[in-house]
Amino acid sequence: MTTVDPTFASCALPRVETERVTLGHGSGGQLSAELLRDVLLPALGAGSALAARAGQPDGGVLEDAAVLDVAGVTLVTSTDAFVVSPLFFPGGDIGTLAVHGTVNDLAMMGATPLALTVAYIIEEGFPLDDLRRIIASVGSAAAAAGVPVVTGDTKVVPRGAADGIFVTTSGIGRRLPAARVSAAFARPGDAVLVSGPIGAHGTTVLSAREALGFEADIASDTRPLHRLVQAMVERRGGDIHVMRDPTRGGVASALNEIAAASGVGVEIDETALPVPPLVAAACDLLGLDPLHVANEGCLIAVVAPEAADEILAVMRSRPESRHATRLGDVVAGHPGRVVMRTLLGSTRLVDMLVGEQLPRIC
Question: Which CATH homologous superfamily contains domain 59-175?
Answer without folding.
Answer: PurM-like, N-terminal domain (3.30.1330.10)
